[in-house]
Amino acid sequence: MDQLSDQEIMKPIVHVDNSSNDNNQQKNNDIEELSQIEGEIISVVAESTATFKCLHKNEPELTIDEKRAIASKLLHKSPDQFLARFGKFLNNDLLKYFETDDMNYGVAHYVNKLRRYFNNASRELDTKNRRYEALKLLVEKGEYFSETAMMRRNPLLYENLVGQYLTEKQKKERDNADTDNDDKTFVDVLMQGIERDHIERLMKRQEDAENEVMEENDSDSESDDEDCKLKDKSDLFKDNCQWGELPDGGKISCSKTKSGNDSDEIETENPGNKLKGKGKNMKIKEINILRQEFVTHMYTNFLNGHDVDFDYSTVDDNEAYDNVELRTQDEEEKYFDSESPELINSPNVNQFQDESEDELDKYMNSLKVH
């Protein structure tokens, strides 16, 4: 017995490292979780409206499996290019897949950009600023916001504010502004006729829509709804009342009232009567105000995304329109002025938005002055 005891004493003591097993189990769990997220990423992208390749004529659409294969190959080959191409079809939770300790600069860049894209407040602010920058460029180029181009987009409003006050000579000059009379061909004349017919049809549709809404409002006989009815008309057709057209068909001048004997009073008149005031100069002043109101309305319409024939995706998702200097300055201020992440997202964002709005307001006000 003593000998057996001695042998037992001589046996090596084996220590079981439970922490090592726990670490291995955790690694396996992490790998499995990443694999699941990766599968979800590929599925989301494959089932999205993303463009995977340019298809030739009569070439069949890619199947879901083919799209999954393309997405998976790009994801493993170049994660940053994958994010650049398909990142906007993901979400904040799926972006965690790319946030690793060894992620490179390109991946970090796109992750940060997509985080901002998925934040509604930041995205709305970026969209507003990009449209503002696009507006300034389009105004500078002149074509999109030329008088004839704006007339084509909203002929009824143009007629109410500008067209009805033009002389025949001015109308002719306007219609020939885009074409040199010496070089005008039969095709040019034909295209002008087609365009004129299009404008007239659009104006007719706008008039019908206006009359339909006004008839619906007039059919409401309850006196309690009278204020609401007037508000609805003002909201939908505020152009007509605000821009010089009264509901009863009269005109209203937009000149400001001044003190003294030379004051310019706001006056109304029925169709057929001449504008009252200081003769021709007064009329020109009022016409210029109405014209500027029309231009301002068209600018605002563009900024609000109401130009139905304009592809806003070329602006809203285009970083080329970003005011990088202003954004960098704002983000630096947020970093130095805040003590915690919570503070970053509250007052300074509103401050940046207010500053952007102030800049836009200044620009729009300058339009009215000039």
TrEMBL record:
Pfam family, one: CCD97-like_C
Domain of life the protein comes from: Eukaryota
Biased composition (Polar residues): 343-353
Low complexity composition-biased segments: 17-27
Domain called CCD97-like C-terminal: residue spans: 129-339
Annotated Acidic residues bias: 209-227
Region feature Disordered, mapped onto this chain: 1-27, 206-229, 249-279, 334-355
Official protein name in the record: CCD97-like C-terminal domain-containing protein
